[in-house]
Design brief:
Number of helices: 9
Distance between the termini: 56 Å
CATH superfamily of the largest domain: Tetracycline Repressor, domain 2
Largest sheet: none
Shape: elongated
């Protein structure tokens, strides 16, 4: 069972993430976070050294949550098929359905938020943000590598490039969906990538 301190820390992180996704890093003040979490300034600085330290732990938390989400979908895909290509296609379908079932437009991505305001962040936060993207690449790349052991691509593409393509579709789909207030854009982009993968491995 989480301690009171752990619950307070999680509440700070959750509140800060919501505010940053709504307003941006620069426009979110420590005072506002303190007010919304109903803690003292001393309580905030007990858990975090300042905004950059908060940003670093927000990104670490974001990475953990995303990896947990992606892993759960891949695990489900592996339960449904032993074929690595079918597993990737199922993963993409499951992810598109998860995005379609969100109650509103995707709330946004901390990677995009922090990258757009990188001049305000220290090297530690930038490094953790980069490592988050690299962890996604490694996860997707491994699945593509498994496919390439059994299938031949029609148009040879580097596994890392296809992995980065999927990351770019997810990130870009979130941004465009939010900009146009159309949740279906992210969903449709994932399904287009799914079609691309299917065609990439179809017989010539």
């Amino acid at each position: 069972m989480p301690t009171k301190g752990e619950l307070t820390r999680e509440n700070i992180l959750k509140t800060a993430e919501s505010l940053i996704l709504q307003k941006g890093f620069a426009s979110t003040s420590i005072d506002e976070i303190i007010h919304q979490t109903n803690i003292t300034k001393g309580g905030f600085f007990y858990h975090f050294q300042g905004k950059n330290d908060l940003a670093k732990h927000l990104m670490l938390r974001y990475q953990r949550e995303d990896e947990k989400f992606f892993t759960s979908l891949f695990d489900r895909a592996e339960e449904l098929s032993d074929d690595p290509l079918q597993q990737m296609l199922i993963f993409l379908k499951l992810m598109s359905e998860a995005m379609a079932n969100l109650p509103d437009v995707h709330p946004g991505c901390l990677v995009a938020s922090f990258t757009s305001e990188s001049q305000l962040l220290n090297d530690d936060v930038k490094q953790v943000t980069a490592e988050c993207i690299l962890s996604w690449r490694a996860m997707f790349e491994q699945r593509l590598h498994n496919i390439n052991k059994q299938y031949t691509m029609r148009d040879r593409s580097a596994e890392s490039e296809l992995a980065d393509m999927l990351t770019s579709i997810i990130e870009g789909g979130i941004i465009v969906s939010r900009a146009l207030a159309k949740p279906e854009i992210l969903v449709n982009q994932l399904l287009q990538f799914r079609n691309h993968i299917r065609l990439l491995y179809s017989p010539a």
